[in-house]
């Protein structure tokens, strides 16, 4: 059994007899007190989140995680639908499981879905995605003193800041971890 110090985002653990996925982990060392690990977990069965604290030497029981490569297909009012490229099965996931990843989902986007105890618990996006700009005002001529940006709306509805030279209709590369502009695609 690993120590709580070894917890990482995306791991599945048993906590109070229930399986949970680790969403965030912070190692804290307050002043002259003992170090501890603060974690935010989401229970797999109920979908509820909890803020838990472990001593850095506490042992945690891991739950086996299976990863499946899926492709995003479409979204409707009932959820988000993914295709397994090997079996062509359609898998529906609820919006609460998708979270902020919905801002980057475009048709045929390959991603990984983590399964614990046979249930999908989290999705992992690629490091970057290519998205098309559908709305962006023109940049002001001569407004180039230093790294000036303007707002832009992407095809998924997400709003980000891009450099002045980017125009409507262009495809750009976005970092899925930070949501920042990376360059033209």
Give a quick precis of the structure:
The protein contains 1 helix and 15 strands. It is mainly beta and 185 residues long. It folds into 3 domains: 4-62, Roll (SH3 type barrels); 65-124, Nucleic acid-binding proteins (OB fold (Dihydrolipoamide Acetyltransferase, E2P)), CATH 2.40.50.140; 128-184, Nucleic acid-binding proteins (OB fold (Dihydrolipoamide Acetyltransferase, E2P), Beta Barrel), CATH 2.40.50.140.
Features of this protein?
15 strands; SH3 type barrels; OB fold (Dihydrolipoamide Acetyltransferase, E2P); 51% strand; single chain; mainly beta; 5-stranded antiparallel beta sheet; 185 residues
Q: What can you tell me about this protein's structure?
A:
The protein has 185 residues and is mainly beta. It folds into 3 domains: 4-62, SH3 type barrels; 65-124, Nucleic acid-binding proteins (OB fold (Dihydrolipoamide Acetyltransferase, E2P)); 128-184, Nucleic acid-binding proteins (OB fold (Dihydrolipoamide Acetyltransferase, E2P), Beta Barrel), CATH 2.40.50.140. It is built from 1 helix and 15 strands. The strands form 3 sheets. Strands 4-3-2-1-5 form a 5-stranded antiparallel β-sheet, with no helix packed on it. Strands 8-7-6-9-10 form a 5-stranded antiparallel β-sheet. It has a 5-stranded antiparallel β-sheet with strand order 13-12-11-14-15, with no helix packed on it. β2 and β3 form a beta hairpin. The N and C termini lie far apart (44 Å).
